[in-house]
Specification:
Structural class: alpha+beta
Low-confidence stretches: none
Largest sheet: 8 strands, mixed
Strand content: 15-25%
Distance between the termini: 55 Å
Strand order of the largest sheet: 1-5-6-11-10-9-7-8
Bound molecules: adenosine-5'-triphosphate, magnesium ion
Shape: elongated
Radius of gyration: 28 Å
């Protein structure tokens, strides 16, 4: 069934319109995230929405769900094979290389706010277009930086008032650690290969750690009792992990070690973490996830360069805020609504509205030439605090009526004092 055959168009499957009420929650989250990122020394970057598809194939990894099944790939009219961005990290690392940021003082700290596109099976908390606020700190491998990035994610959540979250932490080592560990993991799954999900069977050979991250019910039972990499780290990797934990303790932020946490992208090394609701379990609840990716920049053609970052799902964060009763109230977009009556009054009203906006007061007319009663009803419904009533007779006498919509008090003021009067009133109102 093609939606274009419907008479009325709908958003494509797995996508949504962000309407004003939810937009306000997104904006609220973003303003906190931006402020916390700024306090941690991050600058802001916005890569293009599409990149050469190979960037993600090489950066994120051929064996990942994202690259294998979820990318929106298209050929443009010039024959280039492009992909809508399925995640932010590879693009930021590409930009780091392209703009020679290795010459800047390291680490280079970049934050972003981007739409992300993945062809996923739509369900609650899982969309085909979602939005991430993410950060990347590139160029330094230092446990203190890992802790700082995790702390930033934690502080964003704290500043939004969320107290019911927890940090899950693990180390998944590096290529060398995995050389010893992977055969043990394969041996664990081998007797059950016929019973696990077909996709996971295919991964058993080339990306067996992915099996630990599988959300398929057929694979899940066999994840229990699997060997965990944190117990098979080389001494230097184990020491790095210990150091990250010591730094987190110094910051006073709580974490929970989760040996099964591996994350779904190929590029992660050493530290991986997620922030999840403390009392919810399931696969659509993670609000923020990230880790260290010391091999990524080399994968996409640069010199060996370490990095660490995270992505926060704004839609999931918004959902969570709403559930916790922490979403901001619907913003009132208009402070003053101007109702008009009779010939010529709307010209005067237009001028008053313009003057108010220049003074920084949100104002609008009622519009549509309806009865005064209808206009005042609209004013009450709009959430505006004041109505200005401008009639044709007022126009003649150079005055208007200001009505306080909360107390229903009203009085007449000279036209040339209307804006000043409302500015004073708005100021007084915003103090309480
Ligand atoms: P999941 O395990 O839920 O599939 P992921 O490991 O694929 O998540 P990342 O690629 O690390 O997620 O993305 C970072 C964050 O972006 C996630 O923690 C989540 O909050 C959010 N996110 C990821 N995919 C989606 C999606 N399809 N719809 C909405 N939010 C998403
Ligand atoms: Mg996913």
């Amino acid at each position: 069934m093609s939606s274009s055959s419907n008479r009325q168009f709908q958003t494509p499957r797995g996508t949504r319109d962000l309407l004003p009420e939810e937009y306000a929650i997104h904006r609220h989250i973003l303003s906190h995230a931006r402020e916390q990122a700024r306090l941690a020394g991050f600058g802001f970057i916005e890569p293009p929405t599409f990149e050469y598809a190979d960037l993600f194939a090489r950066g994120v990894g051929e064996g990942t769900d994202i690259v294998e099944k979820e990318m929106y790939i298209f050929e443009d009219r010039g024959g280039d094979r492009l992909a809508l961005r399925p995640e932010g990290t590879a693009s930021v690392c590409r930009a780091y290389l392209q703009h020679g940021m290795a010459n800047l003082s390291q680490p280079v700290k970049l934050a972003y706010h981007l739409p992300i596109f993945r062809y996923e099976r739509p369900q609650a908390g899982r969309f085909r277009q979602h939005t991430q606020f993410g950060v990347e700190a590139i160029g330094v491998r230092d446990a203190a930086l890992d802790a700082e990035v995790i702390d930033l994610g934690w502080r964003i959540a704290q500043s939004l008032g969320l107290t019911d979250l927890k940090i899950l932490l693990n180390s998944i080592g590096d290529v060398e650690d995995r050389r010893a560990y992977v055969p043990l993991l394969q041996k664990h799954f081998e007797p059950h290969l016929d019973l696990i999900a077909p996709d996971d069977q295919a991964r058993w050979g080339r990306a067996p750690m992915r099996l630990l991250d599988s959300k398929d019910e057929r694979t899940k039972p066999y994840q229990i009792g699997a060997p965990v990499i944190a117990q098979h780290l080389r001494p230097e990797s184990a020491a790095y992990y210990d150091s990250v934990k010591s730094h987190l303790e110094a910051l006073g932020i709580p974490y929970e070690e989760r040996p099964s946490l591996v994350r779904g992208l190929d590029y992660y090394t050493h530290t991986v973490f997620e922030i999840v609701p403390a009392h919810a379990d399931g696969s659509q609840v993670t609000v923020l996830a990230g880790g260290r990716y010391d091999g990524l920049i080399e994968q996409i053609g640069g010199p060996p360069t370490p990095g660490i970052g995270f992505g926060m799902g704004i839609e999931r964060m918004a959902h969570h805020l709403r559930e916790q009763g922490l979403a901001p109230e619907e913003p009132v977009t208009t402070a003053v609504l101007i109702a008009t009556l009779g010939e010529g009054a709307d010209i005067m009203a237009t001028k008053i509205a313009g003057d108010l906006r220049r003074r920084g007061i949100a104002a609008t007319l009622a519009f549509g030439g309806r009865s005064l009663k209808a206009q005042l009803r609209q004013a009450n419904r709009s959430g505006a605090r004041f109505a200005v009533i401008a009639g044709a007779r007022d126009l003649a006498e150079q005055r208007v009526t200001i009505r306080d919509l909360q107390t229903a008090e009203q009085r007449q003021v000279p036209l040339d004092q209307t804006v000043g009067e409302l500015a004073n009133l708005s100021y007084t109102q915003s103090q309480d």
